[in-house]
UniProtKB/TrEMBL annotation:
Name of the protein this chain belongs to: Thiamine-binding protein
InterPro entries: HMP/thiamine-bd, MTH1187/YkoF-like, Thiamin/HMP-bd_put_YkoF
Organism: Rossellomorea vietnamensis
Domain of life: Bacteria
Domain Thiamin/hydroxymethyl pyrimidine-binding YkoF putative: 11-90, 117-196
Molecular functions per Gene Ontology: thiamine binding
């Protein structure tokens, strides 16, 4: 019997969808993908979602770029993403693990200022101290000034998209460096929501 064991791969992956709340959603999605340099990740898009895989630094870079390239249109855009590292049998695209640390989209994104609201949840699978690991990352977000409150089954973050993505990437990395054999993180991110207008 061929048994697959978590933690056998260094590949990080993200499966995500972008939801622009606009009539021209197709052009916004395709335009955001086209503007993003995905040369350092394995990428596949179908009629349901997109997937990028490779080194974590480039996976987060690509997802961040696609989201910000969509949200800079000013339209209400929502990102739903699941990040994973340590998935058993995850080897397709492992050639991208040899890429260096240079983020291909960071320079282009630096001029984009975007406030976002986020719900995220961490799942350090296989960890005997998973709650402590999760709380360490929640406390880190609080220290960085982006955690606003806990919500059922998630933690809420509010702030600049660059700070938020940095916090998410750091939380994912820290859990990965702990005793977890397979780390999963779910993220729902909203930009330009009309419900934010007029809030006190």
């Amino acid at each position: 019997m061929n048994q697959q064991v978590c933690g056998t791969s260094e590949i990080t992956g993200a499966r995500f969808t972008i939801h622009p709340m606009a009539d021209d959603f197709v052009s916004i999605i395709l335009g955001a993908i086209e503007e993003t340099d995905t040369s350092k990740v394995w990428r596949e898009t179908d009629d349901v979602s997109s997937c990028v895989r490779g080194r974590a630094v480039h996976v987060f870079d690509a997802v961040k770029a696609i989201f910000l390239n969509a949200s800079k249109t000013g339209k209400h855009v929502v990102l739903n993403a699941t990040f994973s590292n340590g998935c058993p049998g995850d080897t397709q695209g492992d050639v991208y693990l040899s890429e260096n640390d240079e983020r291909m989209n960071e320079a282009a994104l630096s001029e984009i200022s975007q406030d976002v609201a986020v719900h995220f949840a961490l799942y350090p699978l296989g960890s005997k101290t998973y709650m402590e690991n999760i709380m360490d990352q929640v406390n880190d977000a609080m220290e960085k000034g982006v955690k606003t409150k806990g919500v059922h089954y998630a933690t809420r973050l509010d702030g600049d998209a660059h700070d938020i993505f940095a916090t998410l990437e750091r939380a994912f990395y820290n859990c990965q460096q702990g005793d977890s054999s397979h780390v999963v993180m779910t993220v729902t991110m909203s930009a330009n929501s009309p419900s934010k207008k007029g809030e006190k």
